[in-house]
Design goal:
Strand content: 15-25%
CATH class: Alpha Beta
Number of domains: 1
CATH topology: Spore Coat Polysaccharide Biosynthesis Protein SpsA, Chain A
Order of helices and strands: EHEHEHEH
Helix content: 25-40%
Largest sheet: 4 strands, parallel
Shape: globular
Length: about 150
């Protein structure tokens, strides 16, 4: 999928799963569902969709170094540090601005770093279909049924 980039939102504050998670160790940095962290599981889901150099990680300053350790194949320049947490819209805007300069034909897949998605094949099928629709100039949003 040429010109397709994944943007992983990984800047959570670690408040929702307290006391297990904390500000410097939010749930996406923790191995909650096995040996891999939720962030590492997100990266693994993306392997068949985009190369590592087309993955951007938007995170908080206090989490960047740990995430870089967990994603050694993602180039350092692809870790975007939020100057201050401002929510999902600012994360998407920051990534869009960076990608618009790097690749004007870019299509972004924006994903949270802390979701569990059990059916990887279905995930890939849906992501590929979403990219095809987005290439026609549409904004595509997806949701899953909570379990």
């Amino acid at each position: 999928m040429d010109h397709t980039y994944a943007v992983i939102m990984a800047g959570g504050g670690g408040t929702r799963l307290w006391p297990v998670s904390r500000k410097k160790h939010p749930k996406h940095i923790l191995p909650l569902l096995g040996a891999d962290t939720l962030f590492q599981s997100t990266l693994a889901r993306l392997e068949e969709l985009v190369p590592l150099d087309q993955i951007l990680v938007v995170t908080a300053e206090g989490q960047a170094e740990e995430l870089k350790k967990q994603a050694p194949g993602v180039p350092a320049r692809n870790f975007l540090i939020e100057p201050e947490p401002r929510g999902t819209a600012s994360v998407v805007g920051l990534a869009a601005a960076v990608l618009a300069k790097r690749d004007p034909q870019a299509v972004m897949l924006v994903l949270p770093s802390d979701h569990y998605i059990g059916n990887r094949d279905l995930f890939h099928l849906v992501m590929r279909a979403a990219v095809q629709v987005a290439r026609k100039g549409y904004l595509v949003t997806l949701g899953i049924t909570p379990t």
